[in-house]
Specification:
Layout (H helix, E strand, L loop, with lengths): L2 E6 L7 H15 L3 E6 L5 H5 L6 H12 L2 E7 L7 H8 L10 E8 L6 H13 L4 E2 L3 E4 L3 E2 L2 E2 L1 H30 L4
Parallel strand pairs: 1-2, 1-3, 3-4, 4-5, 4-6
Antiparallel strand pairs: 7-8
Helix pairs in contact: 1-6
């Protein structure tokens, strides 16, 4: 089975983005995937911001990205921009680190006006790191998350996005395996 990494740019476990991350993690595990959640807020701040790749925690985080077949990037949106935690982590990666990996962006925010952050900020950042398979993500409005519960409509949208993601990851894995089995000419 494919390896999935969820990168959480959530500032706290109880945040709305944290709730979305837990929901997606549960969906992927129920589908039988090996899932690792990387909470960027738990990385050593100084090493993260100074791009200290010698720090064991930073090295492991970068390694997790490079080992993953599929990556879910979850971020809160503030003032039409993704989380600085997500940016700091992605800045650590080699230029084409996301090439060949299926990426599903997810975001939470206070108004529909922040939806543009996915198309005009997050997706270009991912493309800059070589992402060539970025799926249409989902944006969940803050009022659609109450306590630990995501409203039914957005929860269904997230489930559909995860279904698209798992299909794309399986397809990418199949294509890689088939290419490896082709005889050399």
């Amino acid at each position: 089975m494919s390896s999935i990494l969820i990168i959480s740019g959530s500032p706290s476990p109880a945040s709305r983005t944290g709730i979305v991350v837990r929901y997606v993690d549960d969906l992927l595990r129920e589908a039988g995937y090996d899932v690792q959640v990387l909470h960027v807020r738990q990385l050593p701040t100084l090493s993260l911001l100074t791009e200290d790749l010698q720090d064991p925690d930073i090295g492991e985080a970068v390694g997790a990205v490079l080992r993953a077949d599929g990556i879910v990037v979850a971020s809160p949106v503030y003032r039409a921009a993704y989380s600085g935690l997500v940016k700091a982590l992605l800045d650590l990666l080699p230029k084409k680190a996301l090439r060949g990996r299926v990426i599903l962006p997810l975001a939470t925010g206070g108004s529909q006006g922040f939806l543009v952050a996915m198309d005009y900020a997050l997706n270009p950042l991912l493309a800059g790191k070589g992402a060539d398979t970025v799926l249409r993500g989902e944006f969940v409005l803050d009022p659609d998350i109450a306590g630990d519960v995501i409203a039914p409509g957005p929860a269904d949208d997230i489930r559909a996005a995860v279904d698209r993601f798992t299909l794309a990851v399986a397809d990418a894995r199949f294509r890689r395996t088939r290419a490896q089995l082709r005889p050399a000419v």
